[in-house]
């Protein structure tokens, strides 16, 4: 099973996911980033994972990212802190095979501009009593694909955006690898079936 992780920044989720599958030898990863200076690249290298950096044109104008993914026979695309919109050619080429994690309870606090600390600041400013994480399939619009998993976290009155960010990250690190494992299990089953019938 070939997984492509798209990440633009720190990459803590990417690292947790890669570590989670270390012993599953039929699962392999490639990390793609739009940011040559992103810490995720360092993390991936340390974990022995191939890295590819691409530019805007290669995602939106030419088909170079798409061709790369097809060439690698990617089964699942995992977005982990990826800041750009996924273009429709990718959504079409990988139907229901692109998954994202969002640090809030969608449909609240989603959409353009709602990422990272912006989300937590808005949640705290609005005096919400809980927030959480959403794992969802990806379509052409920011944060609007089908939700596959949500988990809540309680916000205490004294919590700052920073504290909330920590709580959310802990939840992400716990659940994202597990949900991806479920998706991979489905892919395994389908592949085995195909092998048996061909
Ligand atoms: C996560 O909070 C995720 O929900 C959001 O971007 C953040 C990425 O964090 N989409 P990291 O780079 O994995 O540490």
From TrEMBL:
Pathway field: Purine metabolism; IMP biosynthesis via de novo pathway; N(2)-formyl-N(1)-(5-phospho-D-ribosyl)glycinamide from N(1)-(5-phospho-D-ribosyl)glycinamide (10-formyl THF route): step 1/1
Domain of life: Bacteria
Gene3D superfamilies in UniProt: Formyl transferase, N-terminal domain
E.C. no: 2.1.2.2
UniProt-annotated binding residues for N(1)-(5-phospho-beta-D-ribosyl)glycinamide: 11-13
UniProtKB keywords: Purine biosynthesis, Transferase
Stored InterPro entries: Formyl_transf_N, Formyl_transf_N_sf, GART, GART_AS
Binding site for (6R)-10-formyltetrahydrofolate: 63, 100
GO molecular function per UniProt: phosphoribosylglycinamide formyltransferase activity
Sites marked Raises pKa of active site His: 143
One CC-aspect GO term: cytosol
GO biological process: 'de novo' IMP biosynthetic process
Active-site residues, Swiss-Prot/TrEMBL: 102
PROSITE patterns: GART
Catalysed reactions listed for this entry: N(1)-(5-phospho-beta-D-ribosyl)glycinamide + (6R)-10-formyltetrahydrofolate = N(2)-formyl-N(1)-(5-phospho-beta-D-ribosyl)glycinamide + (6S)-5,6,7,8-tetrahydrofolate + H(+)
Biological function: Catalyzes the transfer of a formyl group from 10-formyltetrahydrofolate to 5-phospho-ribosyl-glycinamide (GAR), producing 5-phospho-ribosyl-N-formylglycinamide (FGAR) and tetrahydrofolate.
Entry similarity comment: Belongs to the GART family.
Name of protein: Phosphoribosylglycinamide formyltransferase
């Amino acid at each position: 099973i070939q997984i492509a992780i798209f990440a633009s920044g720190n990459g803590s989720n990417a690292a947790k996911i890669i570590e989670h599958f270390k012993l599953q030898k039929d699962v392999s990863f490639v990390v793609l980033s739009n940011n040559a200076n992103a810490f995720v690249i360092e993390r991936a290298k340390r974990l022995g994972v191939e890295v590819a950096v691409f530019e805007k044109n290669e995602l939106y104008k030419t088909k170079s990212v798409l061709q790369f993914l097809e060439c690698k026979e990617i089964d699942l695309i995992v977005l982990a802190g990826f800041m750009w919109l996924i273009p429709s050619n990718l959504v079409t080429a990988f139907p229901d095979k692109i998954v994202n994690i969002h640090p809030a309870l969608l449909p609240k606090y989603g959409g353009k501009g709602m990422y990272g600390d912006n989300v937590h600041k808005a949640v705290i400013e609005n005096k919400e009593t809980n927030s959480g994480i959403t794992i969802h399939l990806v379509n052409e619009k920011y944060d609007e694909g089908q939700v596959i998993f949500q988990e809540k976290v309680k916000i205490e009155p004294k919590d700052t955006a920073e504290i909330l960010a920590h709580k959310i990250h802990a939840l992400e690190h716990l659940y994202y690898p597990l949900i991806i494992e479920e998706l991979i299990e489905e892919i395994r089953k389908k592949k085995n079936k195909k092998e048996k019938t061909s």
